[in-house]
Amino acid sequence: MIKFFKLIPYHFNNACKSIYRNLAMSFSSATAVSVTLLLVMLFLVIAVNLSSVSDKIEKSVQIFVQIDNIVSEEEYDAIEESIKSIENVTVVEYSNKEEQFDLLVADEQAGSEYELLREENPLLNAFYVDITSGEHLEAVNAEVLEIEGVYNSDYGGTSANYLMEAFETIRLGGGLFVVILCFLAIFLISNTIKITIHSRSDEIAIMRHVGADNTFIKMPFMMEGMMIGLIGSIAPILILVFGYQYLYNVLGGNFFSSLLEMQSPTPFVLYASLTLLGLGALVGMVGSFLSVNKYVKWKR
Amino acid sequence: MIHLENVSKIYTNGVHALKNVNIDIEEGEFVYIIGPTGSGKSTFIKLLDGEEIPDTGTVLVADINVGKLKHSKVPYYRRNIGVVFQDFRLLPNLTIFENIAFALEVLGTDRIEVRKRVREVLTLVQLDEKAKAFPRELSGGQQQRATIGRAIVNKPKVLIADEPTGNLDPAMSKEVIDLLEAINKEEGTTILMVTHDKALVDLHKKRTIALDQGFVVADIMKGGYIKHD
Ligand SMILES: Nc1ncnc2c1ncn2[C@@H]1O[C@H](COP(=O)(O)OP(=O)(O)OP(=O)(O)O)[C@@H](O)[C@H]1O
Ligand SMILES: [Mg+2]
Asked: For residue A137, which of A234, A73, A65, A68 has the smallest C-alpha distance?
């Protein structure tokens, strides 16, 4: 085991020489890794930021229930109770039509013009209904509509739902795409290593003659693959470190609207960089492992 | 040191390369293996270094049953023997020093130890001035001396040479045989040398084992080439 570690500098040296000798091949494999990791990086940035957004959307899902004008004040408690008894409902909050009017005035830019209408307030008394998560929106809404005295019930529109579904699709599709790209990078690295193994078959034969064991013969190739992977991860990491910080500063921490709050760069960039570095090394090792296992078969 | 008992080797293509061979070679001996082409000389060497497995019989080298070795153990066994080939097999982009050091580095030998031992070997094979040269800058005889240096650098008990002078002119062949004799004498290494070189065998007389069509046809202590007709 000690011998194994003592030999690392030796293998490292060999791997460097080999990368240098097959510079064009090594470069193209490293580029493949770079492209893959660049996309992984973009995907990470989007996925991580979207997941915080979708958390927010999920939390803010609310149903807006308007009560018919003819319903008497006494019946309100009963309606509130029926809403509360529906599954997945957490909080029910009452808001009378005066409050609704205030909100309307505050919301509209030309609010002051509405003031004239305050006397004949056409709005309805309402309940805000919070529920546990977005996926129950439709079911709860349907049940609320069944309750007697409910004039209308609505939620942030199907758009909220569509948004969530879109996020999910992006996450799945992006993930799949990244996995495919990883396989491509692994394939390219394993091809590079195959060529290295081929160009060094004389050396391998001589190694066998002087009594090198298989681990010793395989090591430099594994190391070479890993190094190609690591070299490939440099560019995406640099782009991430500087690009994300820049984007964060320029956008003031938000994507387009305050709903899309960006992850702060300090822990995120570090974790993402380590992920990219690890992934680069892994892709490189798997790639070289495949070739080494296939082409450095033990024979006597 | 080397003990073959009822050894036969049949290749997958049906060629019967060795037939019921019995050979005993003591520690410190220097033995020639001769015979016409296709008589099984190289096969004999491949059985000794573990490259091929006998179909019947036992091959013992330094008390190790070579034919029964697990594949994964073969590299460790090979560290006990040195092999030299007709076609040198030096790595072209390493210097002579590095080529010889290679055989030790593969074993994980300490750097300082490697340097010391390679210097010793370079002196023994008389290539001190060529340490920094590349194989292509050397004559055939010098290259063959370098491979012999590589073969003995980890002090093997047995040195096996398959036609080491096959590509060399008589003067260079003499260089090589002198070196092998020196190694045999100074380091006490058991040496087995396959050769076609009649003149050499007649001049440097040693125990000579002759193969023909897979059989041992002669084993002469006094030496001298046997005529085949
Ligand atoms: N790997 C192999 N597969 C099949 N047949 C082989 C193999 N190696 C050698 N042979 C056959 O075995 C026989 C003995 O071959 P071997 O190489 O041992 O002869 P040799 O005495 O070394 O000949 P040479 O003097 O030409 O080197 C030959 O008929 C050869 O064709
Ligand atoms: Mg031969």
From this structure: A65
pLDDT tens profile B94-142? 899 999 998 998 888 888 999 999 999 999 999 999 999 999 999 999 9
DSSP classification of residue B215: E
Is residue A149 within 8 A of residue A141, CB to CB? The reply is no
For residues A296 and A285, the model is more confident at A285
Q: What proportion of chain A, given as a percentage, has pLDDT over 90?
A: 14
A106 membership: H or E segment, kind and range: helix A97-107
Q: Which residue has the tokens 């010391």?
A: B116
Q: What is the ipTM of this complex?
A: 0.81
Q: Which residue of B has its CA nearest to A213?
A: B75
Those residues whose C-beta lies under 8 Å from the C-beta of residue A102, and which sit 6 or more positions away, are none
Query: Are A123 and A190 members of one domain?
Result: no
How many CB pairs (< 8 A) connect A and B? Answer: 54
pTM of the prediction? 0.69
The token pair that represents A284 in the structure block:
């490189």
Which residues lie below 8 Å from residue A206, measured CB to CB, with a gap of 6+? B89, B91, B102
Q: Is the CB of B117 under 6 A from ligand 1?
A: no
* Share of residues in chain B with pLDDT > 90 (%): 70
The whole domain housing A291 covers 2-57+170-299
Chain A residue with Cα closest to B53: A300
Please give, one letter per residue, the 3-state secondary structure of B156-173.
CCEEEEECCCCCCCHHHH
The domain total for chain B is 1
Range of the domain at B160: 2-90+156-220
Residues A145 and A93 in one domain: yes
Question: Does residue B32 sit within a domain?
Answer: yes
* Nearest residue to B60 (alpha-carbon basis) of B20, B115, B2: B2
pLDDT: which is higher, A243 or A177: A243
